[in-house]
């Protein structure tokens, strides 16, 4: 059978200041109709560059193709080299014969136009149909990708949809011209595990129905196990291993592949140090885990939450009277014990982030009470809260947007210390910040660098250092590893365990991933629609969930186990 797409010895570099930096070296791959090929690797491995090169979406300059061919066989049976085609030919191929689903649907969709208008526009760009016909086709596509109320969705703007719904709109747009090849660039990375499972099933179903070839890009080998027929592992722009998924996972040959497989939290028990890719590449044993400090006596309550409610007006009359509320947090009660890690888990929209911010008094409670070290925080206002601000800190989900791009890393960390009178002189504060940077495995010279000069994992370490700079006793970590590569995620989880043992703080760890929550937490609170579904010992809930909702979350976690038999 002839290849639908064949890449032969592809080389790509990027020019800067007269130098060419290689990004892809001697890459070859083949995709047939009816086949799903997974491109696997961490950030910087060359996955997205490979996919963008297929559609010629890399800006040139600075991108420069140094070698190779990208051969595509279209519906007419002709095989062409995409690297040699004129812009007009490529414009026809994009969308009509090769479609792409991007990682972040919110930035891919135009916020000004309705979702229906954008899909209909794509249809009319490739087919001679009327506006009404394009509208009918769009609504039919929305139904096919299982969007609720397809006709209503046609008139909604992107901000009115959830992350999973926006991704379905992008899939509908990609499928609008029934392409021969579909490229999916990390389409489920930031989605809840249940939404991810649905999207993966949808892509697989559409691929089988349309007999498409699919290139699925991901850093998560659990996702590969769910969807792909064969996989190609990229490391620093080179293919290090490829083959059928079952064979690759049963008997990985390259240490990089073994590292990606073994660093997932789902494969390890609490307290066991997660291996990282560098352990396998350098042939060393993972470092032993630091002992996790336990209270000498019975657990003392650090924070008590009683019937907490956070409601937002959803509908008002012309005179401002509230007719309906969105109940983000609705009557939640629980305790947080000194020295523990309490996992807060649930899908997007369940209220976990709002609850975390309310615990720190960053979101105003509508009702209920929060006690911290015996003091009722909900009774305090304005400056009365300042003494507690340094003792309670937040690690944000997106470290890049939480760091001021105009401040160096050292200034960003020391600024908070200065506000709270920690560290004495400027020189003493600098010494303390450098010591903190070294604690989170960064170097002294990083003090004077800017946020954009760091990788995602390094920025997450900086945000952790900033939170620790005020010597807090209580930290809320809000989805702090959800967007990281699996190996970087393992490094950050190891770091949090090490720092917790060293500093003895208490953590509320928020995540939508139950496998991560189970690994890092002592106890788990499962949230759904603003309420607590169940709470208890982490391992017990993971092994013996009582709630149907919790069972659904666990069942949706991508697993490598199915390939072991």
Description:
- The chain has 565 residues and is an alpha/beta fold.
- It has a domain at 339-363 and 378-563: P-loop containing nucleotide triphosphate hydrolases (Rossmann fold, 3-Layer(aba) Sandwich), CATH 3.40.50.
- The chain is 36% helix and 26% strand.
- It is built from 22 helices and 20 strands.
- It has a 6-stranded mixed beta sheet, with helices on both faces. Strands 16-17-18-13-19-20 form a 6-stranded mixed beta sheet, with helices on both faces.
- The model has no long low-confidence stretch (mean pLDDT 87).
Provide the β-strand percentage band.
25-35%
Give the strand order, joined by hyphens, for the main sheet.
6-7-8-3-9-10
CATH fold descriptor of the domain at 339-363 and 378-563? Rossmann fold
Q: Which bin fits the share of residues in helices?
A: 25-40%
Topology:
Blueprint: E1 5-16, E2 19-31, E3 36-40, H1 47-54, E4 63-73, E5 79-81, H2 87-96, E6 98-101, H3 105-108, H4 115-126, H5 131-144, H6 150-154, H7 163-175, E7 181-185, H8 193-210, E8 213-218, H9 221-227, E9 230-235, E10 238-244, H10 245-250, H11 255-262, H12 277-281, E11 301-316, E12 322-337, E13 341-345, H13 352-359, E14 367-372, E15 375-376, H14 386-389, E16 392-395, H15 399-402, H16 409-419, H17 426-439, H18 456-468, E17 474-478, H19 486-503, E18 506-511, H20 514-520, E19 523-528, E20 531-537, H21 538-543, H22 548-555
Parallel strand pairs: 3-8, 3-9, 6-7, 7-8, 13-18, 13-19, 16-17, 17-18
Antiparallel strand pairs: 1-2, 1-4, 4-5, 9-10, 11-12, 11-14, 14-15, 19-20
